[in-house]
Known about the structure:
This protein is 33% helix and 28% strand. By secondary structure, the chain is an alpha/beta fold.
Amino acid sequence: MKINDIIFKKLVKRGYSIKGDNKSWDVSDSKLWYLTPELSKGFLNLKKYLPYRIKVFDTEFTLIEKNAEKFREVCDADAFNLIDLGCGDGTKAEAFIKILSKNSKIRYCPVDVSQYFIDQAIARVKDLNYENVAGIKPFLTDFKDLDDIIGIVRNSEYRRNVILLLGETISTYEVNDLLYHLSDPLWKDDVLIVGNGYKVGDRFVELGKYRDSLFNDWFIHIVKGLGFNDNEVKIDARFANGRLEWFYTLEVDKTIFHMDKTVNFKKGDEIVVAIQYKFYENEWREFYELYFADVELLKDEDKEYAIAICKK
């Protein structure tokens, strides 16, 4: 089994905590979810998962279409960079671009850690041949370089930035940290557009839907990147530490040698591979208003999802 250097470094850097008689390792970093083509394809399979497709993709696209006039009002005044954070295959940006005026002048800037996604997003936007897309400037990187990206794309022709952070991407990060790094380099005329679900009722319920085999088909490539085989681990999901966690429990003892390091795993140890934070509407609003003076929430009919338009 080939070991992935980036995943292994993350494991070693973070180390482990003690949980009873076993160790708990945490490699939950969303940039690892799309590190290889296999992982990227695993994420795209979420579109086939009915609960996620309806609640996130379909709801978000409906909100964009329903509020097209509002988005045109916010975006269409000047030429701007459309910075698509976590661009995926470009479908989120496509839904947004097509509701804007044909007279808009957009430079599309897909940002992702996956070259596979960057290529897909660029191909999608090019194939659709939108009149309002005047250029494309991709960035193969993670969100740690946000400050640089937001500054680099500005020039005399494209001074404004409109940042898309759709598809519940924000919920997989420490929210305050990400919003700070997003808001700090923005100018007064820039706009941040965030799509995210809200908790309604009890915070931690419906755990069963997160145990679908689709998640193992996706996240198994992370533990394979650490040198484990399918039959040596078992996936599960839980609510813990104020968040949703997907984790693998080890079914065997195993010692891994890589990059001049030795890591000993015991049966019963666990590896946390993915997390998602769950907050109520008032909590999300408080997050946004801490960093932005002007916040407008465009909510769906069930009031379980909203697109936030944030300005400084």
